[in-house]
């Protein structure tokens, strides 16, 4: 029994260390994304002009390096996320077998892995604002859409357009503890643009 408990502690420490690595990778990707934004480009825009010469309106070397580093970090992030998922599954199985309870940190990470989109901004007085959406909320369910059937932002746009005036159940994760909230969002016309009044971006 003592050996099993020690193994469980070791596995949990490993998952927590991986979580730290994951956060660090995400922060690096965000910083590099800022480099691209400063140059006014993303990951796909050409770095040469119509004549085939390097563009003189951006720092080509800086952009090329940032793109390369982002791709490498995204691959690292996928691998770390996979290891976290495996570690969490193993931990939950061990805890279920031993009758122990999960820690709030590992539970929060389990919930986070189900998120597929993020609220990047909410307009005051909009349907999203009235429903209680906040900037930086993570979305795990948007009506019938969840991480297993999410096919990009067009799937959300299509669902919203077919749900004007109807309540959509949204499941959110909020704050450092990733507390879970269920809200009802009704897409409708308002004084601003669109029918939601918030910007949703994929993770």
TrEMBL record:
Q: Give a yes or no for keyword Lyase in this entry.
A: no
Do you know which InterPro entries this protein is assigned to?
Nas2_N, PDZ, PDZ_6, PDZ_sf, PSMD9
* SUPFAM superfamilies in the cross-refs: PDZ domain-like (SSF50156)
Coiled-coil segments on the chain, per record: none
**The keyword Chaperone appears for this protein:** yes
Cite a GO CC annotation: nucleus
Signal sequence interval, chain numbering: none
Task: Name the keywords, alphabetized.
Answer: Chaperone
Per its UniProt record, what Pfam families does this chain match?
Answer: Nas2_N, PDZ_6
Query: By what name is this protein known?
Result: 26S proteasome non-ATPase regulatory subunit 9
